[in-house]
Design a protein that fits this description.
24 strands; 25% helix; alpha/beta; eight-stranded parallel barrel; seven-stranded mixed β-sheet; binds acetamide; globular; 18 helices; 24% strand
Amino acid sequence: MRKVLGVSLLLIVALTSCVHHTEVLSVIPVPLEVGLQRGVFALDEQTQLWVDAPEADKDLLVGCVDSSPLKVAVASERPTRNALFLEVVDAHPQLNSPEGYVLTIQKDGVVAQALSGAGLFYALQTLVQLMDEECNLPLGTIVDCPRFAYRGVMIDVSRHFFGVDFVKKQIDAMAYYKLNHLHLHLTDAAGWRLEIKRYPRLTELAAWRTDTLWKDWWNGGRQYMERGTEGAYGGYYTQDQIREIVEYAREHYITVVPEIEMPSHSEEVLVAYPELSCSHEPYKESDFCVGNEQVFEFLENVLTEVMELFPSPYIHIGGDEASKQSWKSCPRCQARMEAEGLADVDELQSYLIHRIEAFLNAHGRTLLGWDEILDGGLPPNAMVMSWRGTEGGLKAMAMGHRAIMTPGEYCYLDAYQDAPHTQPEAFGGYLPLQKVYAFDPLSDTISEAQRTLLYGLQGNLFAEYIPTEEHMEYMAYPRILALAEVAWSLPANKDYDDFRRRAMKAVDELRGKGYHPFDLRNEVGNRPGADKPLTHLGVGKIVAYVDGSAYYSGYTAGGDTALVDGLRGGWTYGDKRWQGFLGRKGVDVIIDLEYSQPVTSVSADFMQICGPGVFMPAQIIISSSLDGEHFTELKRIDNEVVRDDSVTFTTFGWDGSVETRYIRYQAVRSDFGGFLFVDEVVVE
Ligand code: ACM
């Protein structure tokens, strides 16, 4: 290691004399400070590598250079010129993070300095991104540090299984964009994916199912099959394969965080070991029986093997979406509640999480869980991963706990990334690159003290609708590049137009390396009318909701003015523009145009996405009135509602000519029930 002062002559470049122009660079994530000068340093056959770092890092860094396009040979003694110097220093006035680095590129060589091997590793990623095809590097200095320490991606290998080579390939890309945590969702109803020596049925039975596609399996009986049965779909990582992944990740300065789901999302375990459920019968429940000591023995034995395999300081135990139903009538669970003085089933879940935390802590690990681990009381040292918005994370931080933000609205990369009719079927929603990029996990209301508890953020690739490797990459890229920049770069340095330019280049580069990114160049964008206000006769007028027709409290779209606010709903009912109706009566609204006037058209848009229960209306009735009491029907439309896999948008309207002050728009629900989602009743 090397002290910062008196190092190399190459180092001393006054930042103040430099031009600050990040816009000419294509580095993702955008660095903290960039000062470039005219001219280049060209790597050539004679350029040598000199690494001054702890032995373990030295090997990794030399390996990283070897496998990169930098391709410079290690010098046998310290070179004086035409070299790439990588130096770990004890301290540096411009560095406050072990992952930060200072990169100085001068005519006769490059010096990268950092407080740790990780910092030098990131300096190398920046260099590779800076270098052009002629091996030129622009002269200047870059000072860079991450905004957040945890920069993660979660891959769900349960709903569909992805092999070791695929995982390693994603590790390569993650490292290139300075992401440093890979969270593997290893267990869920759809398949257990980790060899556990003590419980062979987990990989003999629980890892295999009847259907290749999750959707077919989920809708078709959710059966498991013995390994080796003809037609069985599934797979798992052997312990040796996990060691291989973990080691490969370590070589890329990435921590692999394993997730073992409990107490719920555990149907597959409870089929393999039914005695761990309340009923002791397979195919009955999704939750472990918390009243049964055998369950704790099982979980602790599994976690013991998990901890042997994964050196991660955090072990993710899931904790989300427990039904807790069977606990209410299970004598063992009831006895546990009685004995422990637990008031309700939330506290029973919390009892399990507390016990598991104590076990992990005793082995030097921190418990990490989805934000439901707050329900019934958060264990003392737990870290929260906030997915149902950022509220859970903020609550945990207010209680002095660390949090990782992964709110569905910005971080769930299983949502459509472009107009649904142009995309393969997705989970739903609409999360384009620009929206991911707009995420800022730190609101103004967070105190300085709490800010330090925000550990970072993560993009989640849940795989219900992602059956292949190509498709997984398509959903991941380039959106994880946006998350990488949100996680690493300062908000003041972010600019979407510039990012999009860099992401476009990155998409080409990723394609060149054999990845399958979304075609950003041909992005369609949001629904016409959703971003630019419309003008029509109804805008700003009063809307009355006829008795029995009321919008659902979760989808108000802003309340009584939503249907005439001049903005159409976009590609998802979750965008706070679409108004949702769950009641039997459907939609029945009267718009008062204030005075009688000629009207030639009335229309409204509806959307359908059957998965979450959103259907088109079965009938539409449009009427007019001069006094608001006596209505004349202008048009009645009968609509056949058909269930399918697509996301569809339909406008139902009337054209003609009438003198009217009031317009009544009624939409009747179909026999499918569910939601009606309507937006902008346009009156012209
Ligand atoms: C989750 O999406 N259930 C964490």
